[in-house]
Each structure stands twice: as C-alpha cells, then as structure tokens.
Amino acid sequence: MPRPGRNTYSDQKPPYSYISLTAMAIQGCPEKMLPLSEIYKFIMDRFPYYRENTQRWQNSLRHNLSFNDCFIKIPRRPDQPGKGSFWALHPSCGDMFENGSFLRRRKRFKLGGGLLLPDPMTVSSKSQDAAVHFLQQQQREAKLRLSALHAHLPPGGYMSSVPPASGFKHPFAIENIIAREYKMPGGLAAFSPAGFPLHQQLPPPWSVYGSGMMDSPIMSSDYPAYSLQTLPAIPVPIKPSPGSMLHTHLPAFLAHSPPQSLSPSSPQTGQSSPAAPGEALSSSASAALQVSVH
DNA sequence: TTTTGTTTATCTATAT
DNA sequence: ATATAGATAAACAAAA
C-alpha cells in the first residue's frame, strides 16, 4: 500500500493560532525579535500547511501583529539595515498559553488604552519604550555572543543549539511550547483546567517535535527544521494549580534597570505574586518601568 | 511597485 | 446560548 509516510499529516493545519506561531518564531531566535519576513519563513519552514495561500495567511499574520498588544515593534537601528521593524513579544504579556491551548488564549493581552484602565499614567507607551529599549540591548548582546561562538560551531542558522547566555526562557519559547505539549502525560493532570484534550484529540506529528525521537519517520522527512531543536525536552514551568494561578510572574528584568543586569538568574523561582493576570500590567511592574524609563 | 503596517468589518470557533 | 478570541477580507498609508 502507498505508505502514508510523507505528506500525510503535514498539510493539516497545525493546532496553533497565528499568535502562537508568531510567538514561537520570535522566541525561537536568540535575539527574541524578528522581522516580518523571518516570521513568515519560520512558519513556512516548519509547517508545510503554510506554504500555500500565503497571501491569505500572511495578511492575517500581519493583522495579528498590529492588532495584538502582545507584539511590539522594535525599530531597526542604523546598523541593522533591512525592511520593516523587528517584532518582539511584549515582556509583560506573560504566559498566554496558561490554559494549555495554543488555539485560543483565555484573555487577550491588551495594554491600557486609557478608557478602561483605572491607572492613568502607567502602562502603554512607557512600557513599550522600556520594552523596546531592553530588547534592543538584548539584541546587541545576543549578537555578540553569537559572533563569539560562531567560530567554534558548525553553521546552523539562528536556531542552532546555542542557548542564549541568559537562562531565561519565555513561556513562549519554542522549547517550552513543545515540551508542554509533549510532557502532558505523567502526573500533570492538574495542569489542564478542564482536561485539555491534547492527546486524545490529535496525535499529529508536531506533538512529538521535542521528544528527541530523531528516528521518527515524520520528523526527519517532513520537519527537518525542528530536529535541530531536539533538546532534552526542558522541564516546563508548570503552574501548580490552574485555578489559583492568578499569579503572573513578572518578567525578571522588569524589576531591574533595563540595560544593566541581564542575568535573570532564576526567573521562575516560585514567586507567586498575586498580580494581575497578564491583562493589565501589575502596579509593581509599572512602577519598575517608571523608574527604569528616566 | 512591493513590502510592511494599521484599521475596520464580518464571520467562525471555542470556552463558559 | 452568549461572549469573546481568532481568522479572513479588504482598504489604505508609509516605507523601501
């Protein structure tokens, strides 16, 4: 019989929203920011489904970038010529996949525009500025690290196995996304609020990306780009209880001065500050921002 | 002209 | 069933 091996699953629509996909792309690169064209490329490289109807989905993607506050635009510096800005995740957007679904977030991450926000002079433009500043700095450093390492490593593109010097992995980091999907088994029942259907629902190829099974036929042939990401399935920062997890760990750097200490030694250290759930920026965070943005 | 961004409107899908 | 997140379409401006 015609072995279904090749493109059987691959043209199925991946179970990720554009937001998820974009976040993966951004977090998958060392600089944590990408120009639009690179986001396209990331998605197309990995998901054959998106190698068609590009006009359609790319328009949607662009719409998402502009429309969702969780994405921020970082202007190119003169030393980075090219088209368009870089796109990054807003540092305060937290873990938008809390509910375990990559299709739909529990709530949109929206910056206070003024109307609905009881804090007037907080968030919006200032947090953007701070974020931009931080990320630009981060980009510089990432660049340095990369060029330093480039000498020793085989060419592999921006997703080579080099972990960024900072141990911090955003919840959107592709390692985490993958790991979370894959690590569902075991005793993690508490994680999914309503018993998320992940494994019963769809066992498609992308659920094994991070599993380290290079020998899987699907892997090597259809998703070559993902093999380089075969890390030891990083233990995911699991939120203990879905119900009581209204704590959004502040991104570590928000508590620091932007350009200064870039070593978030342990960003996940069980801190449970009862902050606002990603929706609005917690007051402490905005306080930190105000300080940091002279 | 093409790419990149913004914005509005409408429809579909999903969680509650 | 309803509210809302996400997808798609489309008009349009600005930049390259």
UniProtKB/TrEMBL annotation:
<dbReference type="GO" id="GO:0000981">
    <property type="term" value="F:DNA-binding transcription factor activity, RNA polymerase II-specific"/>
</dbReference>
<dbReference type="InterPro" id="IPR001766">
    <property type="entry name" value="Fork_head_dom"/>
</dbReference>
<keyword id="KW-0539">Nucleus</keyword>
<dbReference type="Pfam" id="PF00250">
    <property type="entry name" value="Forkhead"/>
</dbReference>
<keyword id="KW-0238">DNA-binding</keyword>
<feature type="region of interest" description="Disordered">
    <location>
        <begin position="256"/>
        <end position="294"/>
    </location>
</feature>
<keyword id="KW-0805">Transcription regulation</keyword>
<feature type="domain" description="Fork-head">
    <location>
        <begin position="13"/>
        <end position="107"/>
    </location>
</feature>
<dbReference type="InterPro" id="IPR036388">
    <property type="entry name" value="WH-like_DNA-bd_sf"/>
</dbReference>
<dbReference type="InterPro" id="IPR030456">
    <property type="entry name" value="TF_fork_head_CS_2"/>
</dbReference>
<protein>
    <recommendedName>
        <fullName>Fork-head domain-containing protein</fullName>
    </recommendedName>
</protein>
<dbReference type="InterPro" id="IPR047389">
    <property type="entry name" value="FOXB1_B2_FH"/>
</dbReference>
<dbReference type="GO" id="GO:0000978">
    <property type="term" value="F:RNA polymerase II cis-regulatory region sequence-specific DNA binding"/>
</dbReference>
<dbReference type="GO" id="GO:0005634">
    <property type="term" value="C:nucleus"/>
</dbReference>
<dbReference type="InterPro" id="IPR036390">
    <property type="entry name" value="WH_DNA-bd_sf"/>
</dbReference>
<feature type="DNA-binding region" description="Fork-head">
    <location>
        <begin position="13"/>
        <end position="107"/>
    </location>
</feature>
<dbReference type="InterPro" id="IPR018122">
    <property type="entry name" value="TF_fork_head_CS_1"/>
</dbReference>
<dbReference type="GO" id="GO:0030154">
    <property type="term" value="P:cell differentiation"/>
</dbReference>
<dbReference type="InterPro" id="IPR050211">
    <property type="entry name" value="FOX_domain-containing"/>
</dbReference>
<dbReference type="GO" id="GO:0009653">
    <property type="term" value="P:anatomical structure morphogenesis"/>
</dbReference>
<keyword id="KW-0804">Transcription</keyword>
